[in-house]
Write a structure and sequence with these properties.
The chain has about 240 residues and is of the alpha+beta class. It has helices at about 80, 210-244; strands spanning about 1-10, 10-15, 25, 30, 35-40, 50-55, 65, 70-75, 90-100, 105-110, 115-120, 125-130, 135-140, 150-155, 160-165, 170-175, 185-195, 195, 205. The longest helix is centred in the last third of the chain and has 36 residues, at about 210-244. The chain folds into two domains: about 1-120, Immunoglobulin-like (Sandwich), CATH 2.60.40.10; about 125-225, Immunoglobulins (Immunoglobulin-like, Sandwich). The protein contains two helices and 19 strands. The chain starts with a strand and ends with a helix.
Length: about 240
């Protein structure tokens, strides 16, 4: 593209011959769980240029931004990058950009090359407590590996312990010392997967999860066993009466 810049009484006039050249799209990080900065760099400085950012082959931009000097910087979060598309724990998104000039009719540049971004959607970890040992089990989703876990205690901002999961494991167990007469505290955990932190787990105290999970299963087992004993007793009673 050839351009000529002329000044007439402080009014800038840009004359174009041919198509607007292709911009260059880059990102400050290619893995994100929250916000990421995209940079659409123009081949030269234009007055009042606007950049448009696109997902995959979409023709409608997810966002637009006015240029400063010869580039547009846009901060966008993972949810905006994904839109309404179905996601797993890791989703790859292809992005591209173009730019327009404040002219009538509007002139679009060529699209940039695609840039790939990995969007992480970390799920909330599970947390369990064993009352007799004060053992806290923190568990990430089954498809996560090489996960770093952090254990927190209520009313404390910093983690009290961090531990890396073993190879091919998605959980860790934190052992907490408990002294006689000490008030039971409540805990929550969080994990990091590829440098992105998950949401916080539920806040849980000694005995809460143990009862809600184990006692529920025990109660179901007792109820089922009682039912079969009752049915067996009826059959035995009927058999004894018929044999007399």
């Amino acid at each position: 593209m050839n351009t000529g810049l002329y000044s007439i009484d402080a009014i800038s006039i840009v004359i174009f011959t041919g198509n607007l050249n292709r911009p260059v799209l880059s990102a400050k990080s290619h893995i994100t769980g929250k916000a990421i900065t995209l940079i659409c760099e123009l081949p030269q400085t234009f007055p009042e240029a606007h950049c448009h950012f696109y997902r995959d082959d979409d023709l409608h931009p997810i966002k637009s931004k006015s240029s400063e000097d010869n580039k547009c910087e846009l901060s966008v979060n993972g949810h905006e990058l994904l839109g309404s598309r179905a996601t797993g724990m890791e989703t790859e998104v292809q992005l591209r950009c173009d730019y327009t000039l404040n002219m009538r009719p509007e002139i679009h540049s060529q699209y940039s090359n695609y840039t790939s971004i990995i969007v992480l959607v970390n799920q909330k970890p599970e947390v369990y407590v064993q009352e007799n040992k004060i053992s806290v089990l923190c568990k990430a989703p089954s498809n996560a590996s090489e996960v770093l876990f952090h254990l927190y205690q209520e009313r404390k901002e910093e983690s009290i312990e961090s531990k890396m999961a073993e190879n091919n494991q998605n959980f860790v167990i934190f052992e907490i010392a408990r002294h006689e007469g000490e008030i039971s505290m409540r805990y929550w955990c969080q994990y990091e997967y590829k440098g992105v932190k998950s949401p916080k787990s539920d806040l849980i105290g000694a005995g809460e999860t143990t009862c809600s999970v184990e006692c529920t299963l025990l109660a179901k087992g007792i109820a089922t066993g009682s039912f079969f004993i009752f049915v067996f007793s009826l059959h035995l009673y009927a058999h004894l009466r018929c044999s007399k």
